[in-house]
Putative acetyltransferase (Deinococcus deserti), 178 residues
Amino acid sequence: MPDDRLSDSLLQVRLLDTADAAVYREVRLSALRSDPLAFLTTADEFAARSLDSVADRLTPSDTATSFGAFLDGHLVGLLTLAREKPAIFAHRVNVFGVSVLSSARGRGCGDALMRAALTQAMTWAGVTSLHLAVMDTQHAARRLYERHGFTVWGTQPDAVRRDGQVLSEHWMWRALQP
């Protein structure tokens, strides 16, 4: 999906698959290392996963898929959608693992990933809402989600303790209109 606002770079968003495992792993590790407070998974935990297990998670299915944002052919952003599996929750899709490398921020990657996610979620029959959580330290991410129609429905205080910091987590959702 090219973004007309970018005159000096070609931005594309596409579904990732097992062939993208090595580059996905590299970009995800970079995100976890550069902004550890944004994620529940630590860089060390993710680094311990085998490339095969990373590839398995990138296999698109009817309940989970991952997108990559590419600038000039280089993977710079990630987003995963996962539909709840129990029948009573199958109307809900979770957005997680959203990240854009610091060198690519401010260039429309996050917006393009969110548009792709919304479009994909609308293709899944019966889906009525999207859900995500964002740490209270992630102001730019929260603004991104709000631009795409997400609103905070609750905040969990003392949600995460990492590196001597106590973090709250904002829970956000948005209705999905076909």
Summary: The first helix runs from residue 21 to 34. Confidence is low (pLDDT under 50) at residues 1-7. Residues 20 and 55 are 8 Å apart (CA to CA).
